[in-house]
Amino acid sequence: MYKEGYVMECKGLSKKYKSFFALYQVDLKLERGKIIGLVGPNGSGKTTLIKLINGLLVPTEGEVLINGTAPGPETKARVSYLPDNNYLSNWMTVTQMIDFYGDFYSDFNKEKAYDMLASLGLDPKQKFKTMSKGMKEKVQLVLVMSRDADLYCLDEPIAGVDPAARDYILRTIISNYAEGATVLISTHLIADVEKILDEVVFIRDGEIVRHAAVEELREQYDRSVDALFREEYKC
């Protein structure tokens, strides 16, 4: 497994739709072994960046590298991706989904998946179509976090669950990512996520406006990252 250098690096990365830049000249490096928040309001470019990292979009300019390699079959085997919308088949049971992931990803740990299901109170025999939105979010998270990946990209992982369940979801994330791996969490719910973050990346109108360690920001500005976020993005 590749262990040197940055797990992810963007160099002059831009994505343009007709005359609109969803991302513009992004330079960003993510170190290994960190939990990093990608924060910004809706439409700021968070999902576009995550899709570029996962090879679901092609850059207009610049490049993104995973373990020093452009997105492709090799990087898909090292990046575990949770999209912001449902991607699983409603007719399947959770057990069938686990079997499917086990067949598709060589780094998928079925025992770990079943342990997480139990801790979250989910029945592996239940069909996906009978689950609530919050339960579906949890199942998708279990599948993503059961891989032994280098980079976990989680796009709004707590947006679809009630506030009482958010701490449980966050504990599941920090307890189950592979040792030495990096977790990139895209969110606008800063107050809920801040306590588990090592670093935070602020994005606005497709540009990175700040990237720093959470503790450094708290010391420099004498306030929480959530308060800084509200000030940065106030209307």
Key attributes of the depicted protein:
6-stranded mixed beta sheet; 235 residues; Rossmann fold; 3-stranded antiparallel beta sheet; 9 helices
Helix content: 25-40%
Under CATH at level 1, the class stands as Alpha Beta
CATH superfamily: P-loop containing nucleotide triphosphate hydrolases
Number of helices: 9
Trace the largest sheet across and list its strands. 5-6-7-3-8-9
Total strand segments:
9
Mean pLDDT: 91
Instruction: Indicate the proportion of strand residues.
Output: 25-35%
Shape: globular
List the uncertain runs: none
Reported by name, the CATH topology is Rossmann fold
Distance between the termini: 45 Å
Class derived from helix and strand content: alpha/beta
CATH architecture: 3-Layer(aba) Sandwich
C-alpha Rg (nearest Å): 17 Å
Query: Describe the biggest sheet?
Result: 6 strands, mixed
Our count of domains comes out at: 1
Description:
About 35% of the residues lie in helices and about 25% in strands. It contains 9 helices and 9 strands. The strands form 2 sheets. Strands 5-6-7-3-8-9 form a 6-stranded mixed sheet, sandwiched between helices. A 3-stranded antiparallel sheet has the order 2-1-4, covered by helices on one side. α5 runs parallel beside α6. The radius of gyration is 17 Å and the shape is globular.
How are the secondary structure elements laid out?
Layout: E1 8-17, E2 20-30, E3 35-39, H1 46-53, E4 61-66, H2 73-76, E5 79-82, H3 94-104, H4 110-119, H5 133-145, E6 151-155, H6 163-176, E7 182-187, H7 190-193, E8 199-204, E9 207-213, H8 214-221, H9 225-232
Parallel strand pairs: 3-7, 3-8, 5-6, 6-7
Antiparallel strand pairs: 1-2, 1-4, 8-9
